[in-house]
Write a structure and sequence with these properties.
This protein is an alpha+beta fold. It folds into two domains: about 5-45, no CATH class; about 60-250, Aminoglycoside 3'-phosphotransferase, Chain: A, domain 2 (Alpha-Beta Complex), CATH 3.90.1200. Helices cover about 45% and strands about 10% of the residues. The protein contains seven helices and seven strands. The protein has helices spanning about 15-25, 60-80, 120-135, 145-155, 160-185, 195-215, 215-225; strands spanning about 5-10, 35, 40-45, 90, 100-105, 105-110, 115-120. α2 packs antiparallel against α3. The longest helix has 25 residues, at about 160-185. The chain is globular, with a radius of gyration of 18 Å. It starts with a strand and ends in a 41-residue tail after the last helix.
Length: about 270
């Protein structure tokens, strides 16, 4: 609506408003501003000009690097804040390309903070690594090319050596969680019977992605750690728990079709 975006108030609205006000105070420009509640009781946000991709696709190294830097700035803006609580940072929990605004071909901001909550940076990095760099699709780049791009992401974020050793486990956690969330929607009354095949296809896709990532775990991790020496402390898993964000959709399904009717904008 004009230069604003309006969405129904939810049980997450207060936290999102606090987070966006915090970003504004900290000078973080990679998020919309919360402008209050309109006369219809809807949350009102500033509109960020640019393109938001409707589908997964191949991203260039420069785009991946910019996304990694943007995510690091997001996290650092919340580190040590009351919003992060006892956790290291506030995580977006859904920093895929579909929730990213691009200008001149580069990511400049995140949108859709419904799933934002305190967490560990690897929860976001695991999802970003998957949705920006890793794909089991036959037409996707080679495994080694994907591994090299994971390294681009880790370097751009400034990920330390122990965390690099845990990144693939974070990716696997997010893929497992994605399949479980889609499976849970099979019994959701807001979906129709006609949605069942699409949901099952997304479950199958998530499982294929998990199997692909697990099969090439060593190649991906070697790229992340080279030329850094391996550390015995880098093998510890970092669980992402239930705070992992909404379910991702496969590359050939538009992002706008991912959510049940009445659930609000995607």
């Amino acid at each position: 609506m004009g230069d604003t975006v309006r969405r129904p108030v939810t049980d997450r609205s207060a936290f999102v408003a606090d987070l966006l006000h915090h970003f504004e105070r900290r000078g973080f420009a990679g998020a919309p501003r919360h402008l209050g509640v309109d006369e219809a009781g809807r949350d009102t946000f500033s509109h960020l000009p640019g393109e938001v991709p409707s589908r997964f696709r191949r991203w260039g190294d420069g785009q991946v690097a910019a996304a990694g830097g943007l995510l690091r700035s997001f996290h650092e803006a919340t580190r040590g804040s009351c919003l992060a609580g006892a956790h290291p940072v506030v995580c977006h929990h859904d920093p895929g390309p579909n929730n990213t605004v691009f200008r001149d071909g580069l990511p400049v901001a995140f949108i859709d903070f419904d799933m934002a909550r305190p967490g560990d940076p690897l929860e976001d990095l695991g999802y970003m690594a998957w949705t920006w760099c890793v794909s089991s699709k036959p037409q996707a780049p080679s495994v080694r090319a994907q591994a090299a791009q994971l390294r681009v992401l880790a370097d751009a974020y400034g990920l330390d050596v122990p965390a690099r050793g845990r990144l693939l486990d974070a990716v696997l956690d997010r893929q497992t969680g994605n399949a479980l969330r889609w499976h849970g929607l099979l019994g959701d009354s807001t979906w129709t019977m006609a949605d069942g095949p699409q949901i099952r296809a997304r479950i199958d896709w998530s499982r294929r992605e998990h199997a692909f990532t697990a099969d090439h775990h060593d190649v991906f991790t070697d790229a992340l750690l080279r030329p850094f020496p391996r550390s015995t402390s880098s093998s510890r898993r970092v669980p992402t728990g239930e705070e992992g964000g909404r379910a991702a959709a496969p590359p050939d399904v538009p992002f706008t079709a991912r959510r049940p009717a009445g659930a609000g904008p995607g």
